[in-house]
Write a structure and sequence with these properties.
With 131 residues, the chain is of the alpha+beta class. Helix content is 40%, strand content 26%.
Length: 131
């Protein structure tokens, strides 16, 4: 559990670092000076098992809102926090009269079954009980 926490922290810090190194607005624009931008659309890409509706319910970035990069970063952390994804990122690009925010996710693999072999000292029922 400690390793998972450290990995999640490292990934979160990497996301924040990337957001600082990759600004979403060109130099000298009004959006850069205020730090806010208008969201025209929000999309989700890469999800197969977790529904888009579930993902959108977990984030605060909404079409029509003015948001900051910090809010998008918080949304990335929220999506990591639900535990369904191994990778989450956000792409922000011009779209209509504002920006499109596309959250790209990679889902954790599903465990379909467990095969237990080679037991000598424990019964299979006891091992399965501990799983």
């Amino acid at each position: 559990m400690l390793i998972k926490s450290r990995i999640a922290l490292a990934v979160g810090l990497a996301a924040v670092l990337l957001s600082v190194l990759c600004p979403c607005a060109p130099a000298g624009s009004e959006e850069e000076s205020s730090g806010e931008f208008q969201v025209s659309a929000v999309e989700v890409e890469g999800n197969k098992v977790v529904s888009t509706t579930t993902i959108l319910a977990k984030i605060r970035t909404r079409p029509g809102d003015r948001v900051t990069q910090a809010l998008v970063d918080e949304d990335i952390k929220r999506l990591y926090g639900i535990g369904f994804f191994t990778d989450v990122s956000a792409e922000i690009r011009p779209y209509q009269q504002g920006k499109m925010v596309r959250f790209k996710v990679r889902e954790r693999p599903l465990v379909v079954g467990v095969v237990i072999t080679g037991l000598r000292h424990f019964r299979e029922a006891k091992v399965r009980e501990e799983l």
